[in-house]
Amino acid sequence: MNKARSIYKMLLKKYGYQGWWPLLELEEKDPNSRGYHPGDYGYPKNDAQRFEICCGAILTQNTAWKNVEAALRNLRDAKALQAEQLLRVRLPQLRVLIRPAGYFNQKSAYLRTFAAFFRKLDERIPGRDELLGLKGIGPETADSMLLYAFKQPKFVVDAYTKRMCSQLGLIESSKYDDVKGFFERQLPREVPLYQEYHALIVEYAKRNYTKKITCPIDESL
DNA sequence: AACCAGGACGTGA
DNA sequence: TCACGTCATGGT
User: Fold this and answer.
1) Would you state the pLDDT for residue A213?
2) Strand C closer than 7 Å to the CB of A74?
3) What predicted TM-score, i.e. pTM, was given to this entire model?
4) I need a labelling partner for A103 at 20 to 30 A (CA). Which of A44, A62, A136, A221 fits?
């Protein structure tokens, strides 16, 4: 078994299924779930949920998820959490709605750009390069959208992933595409696997790398 | 009360 | 290509 698989196995045993990506609707149905849906890969179930995930992907750039949730709730309560509707909101108002997520000047513009793109999609699955062409969507955001909203087997690499790889000495390069390739070459192209793996890395990193502290290598990995 | 969080962009070397 | 400054709120 290769390293990518064995690490996944250990992380899964340690933390269990994560059930990403969180959705507002699920959090309210069961606050205890915090929006996650472990074991159920049937999400998103509709266009609105797809759009919500994409907005979350943009809003969470370098931002704590809790702040993103507040912004998403504001959007939904203002009936602006669907592409068509979001485009009707005036820019100053949009800034106010997403304020808790920070960077509201940039992100408000990013959301508009993306909403226009999303509306035009009309059920079609966007290509990675198309997404990267939009202002405000870099490699991680594009892969997050593709993996969690459009269910395409794209491995998501974030700062935590690079940090873990570097700490465990898995790969020399920390360039996005190199790290992404490292995992994609070793794993079967399965969406649930990619989804869980990224979420597990985040969970692992939150427990080991926070507060300026890098814990010693977890030997169980 | 600094420091950080599920990054991306613009700029200058 | 690549390092670096910038963007902003809320929690610790």
Assistant:
1) 59
2) no
3) 0.96
4) A44
